[in-house]
Specification:
Layout: E1 3-8, E2 12-18, E3 27-34, E4 54-59, H1 63-73, E5 88-89, E6 92-94, H2 104-120, E7 126-131, E8 134-140, E9 145-153, H3 155-165, H4 183-210, E10 215-219, H5 223-226, E11 235-236, H6 240-253
Parallel strand pairs: 1-4, 6-9, 7-10, 10-11
Antiparallel strand pairs: 1-2, 2-3, 5-6, 7-8, 8-9
The structure holds adenosine-5'-triphosphate, pantothenoic acid (PAU) and potassium ion (K).
Length: about 260
């Protein structure tokens, strides 16, 4: 019962082929393409794959990109299905004002993170940080209710905004420093601590609200770069979105 998971992000499409639609399934193949290059998937990295029997994805890039991905999937006889954020799914409840307006990447990653925590011990409050093109910081209480979260610009967007918005800031990437003494280090440290500071703030909000130390999980391609600058112990999980898609797929496809 092969299963293809697809995460169409703001910048790149990431995919993973598993031997079954269930948590813990074996990973058979995986890859990533920039959105500009997705029209080559069927003749490229998808061509040699075993045909997936089921597929589930999440997409934040809009309908035109979704259609381009579905065109590539015509290579196989598999129905495309995409997660839409809802009021409730896989044990999580959604506290967003309009649940369907919550980015499905955020919803799916939270589902992955919640089950990650439950697999290890008793339920507890949870902070989920996704570090990619944008950064999101989500708060979930011990009962599995998504209480709310932050959206902030990712590191790359922050630096590009400063480059285009100021008269003379064009410098190479620097190092994260406690007391930056050159422009490169000042910019790199500023972006990093903006993210770390936002996360710390949400940690305090959740701790205060729940009266219990939250578990902290971080994911996304740049998570490892943020890890040394965080103020709390964070567990890095490679791809929470795939983990969440496997949880949902197990319920939908009965894996
Ligand atoms: N030192 C850093 N600290 C924090 N974030 C960084 C750093 N360097 C790069 N980044 C961020 O990481 C992003 C790349 O992460 P990732 O590979 O998860 O994103 P992506 O797959 O391109 O995004 P998406 O999932 O939205 O398509 C960059 O866009 C940038 O914002
Ligand atoms: C916030 C991003 C860009 C993070 O990838 C994405 O989840 C998105 O476009 N969300 C829709 C708006 C929202 O989540 O409130
Ligand atoms: K993403």
């Amino acid at each position: 019962m092969t299963f293809l998971a697809i995460d169409v992000g703001n910048t790149r499409l990431k995919w993973a082929l598993y031997d079954a639609p269930r948590p813990g399934a074996a990973l058979m193949a995986h890859g990533a393409e920039f959105l500009d290059h997705i029209d080559r998937l069927a003749e490229g990295s998808w061509a040699p794959l075993i045909h997936p029997e089921h597929m589930l994805g999440c997409v934040v890039a809009g309908d035109a990109v979704k259609r381009r991905v579905q065109e590539q999937m015509e290579l196989w006889d598999v129905a495309p299905s995409w997660v839409v954020s809802s009021a409730q799914e896989a044990g999580l409840t959604n506290g967003y004002d309009h649940p369907s307006r919550l980015g499905s990447d955020r919803w799916v990653a939270m589902i992955g993170a919640r089950h990650h925590v439950l697999a290890r011990g008793p339920a507890r409050p949870l902070i989920v940080v996704m570090v990619g093109t944008a950064v999101t910081v989500e708060c979930i209480d011990a009962e599995g209710r998504f209480m709310g979260g932050l959206i902030l610009p990712g590191h790359g967007i922050m630096l590009r905004a400063l480059e285009t918005g100021t008269a003379g800031l064009h410098v190479p990437t620097g190092e994260v420093r406690l007391f930056p003494t050159n422009t490169s280090d000042a910019l790199t440290s500023g972006g990093t601590y903006a993210i770390a500071g936002a996360v710390e703030r949400m940690y305090q909000h959740l701790l205060q609200h729940c009266g219990q130390e939250p578990a902290c999980i971080m994911t996304g391609g740049a998570g490892w770069k943020m890890a040394p600058s965080m103020t709390r112990p964070f567990e890095l999980v490679d791809n929470l979105i795939f983990d969440g898609l496997l949880e949902i797929a197990a319920r939908r496809f009965g894996g």
